[in-house]
């Protein structure tokens, strides 16, 4: 997979009932994560909060988004774009959030989804 600045990644999935959290991770590998997008239903002291972070020689400072359009047991769609300054995530229901591209890179080749979620499709164009 090659995800380049200016491209759009569309992810659709279904959140399992009882899900505590899930994450979408984009970067170079599991130790170099430029975007850790982590909706938390009830985990690590967060309730119905989206937490974003990056990992490069350890985790950085978390950024929290209070808009939470995810529902356990239901499908969702996300759209992610980026440039060498910022990641933009279009949430279900159309809310847009951003997270700094702390790496400053314009190509990422690693992506993984973790947690109680079933991925239906991932499209990059």
TrEMBL record:
Task: List the protein's name.
Answer: Galectin
> A Pfam family name for this chain?
Gal-bind_lectin
Would you name any one GO CC term?
extracellular space
Gene3D superfamilies the UniProt entry points to:
2.60.120.200
Per UniProt, which keywords does this protein have?
Lectin
Instruction: Name the SMART domains for this protein.
Output: Gal-bind_lectin, GLECT
A single GO molecular-function term is:
galactoside binding
All copies of the Galectin domain together span: 1-125
Q: Which domain of life is it from?
A: Eukaryota
């Amino acid at each position: 997979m090659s995800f380049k600045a200016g491209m759009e990644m569309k992810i659709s999935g279904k959140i399992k009932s009882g899900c505590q959290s899930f994450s979408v991770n984009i970067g170079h590998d599991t130790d170099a994560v430029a975007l850790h997008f982590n909706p938390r239903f009830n985990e690590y002291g967060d309730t119905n909060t989206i937490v974003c972070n990056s990992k490069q020689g350890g985790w950085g400072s978390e950024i929290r988004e209070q808009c939470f359009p995810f529902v356990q047991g239901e499908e969702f769609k996300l759209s992610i774009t980026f440039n060498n300054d910022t990641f933009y995530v279009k949430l279900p229901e159309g809310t847009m959030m951003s997270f700094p591209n702390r790496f400053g890179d314009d190509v990422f080749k690693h992506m993984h989804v973790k947690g109680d979620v079933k991925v239906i499709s991932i499209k990059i164009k």
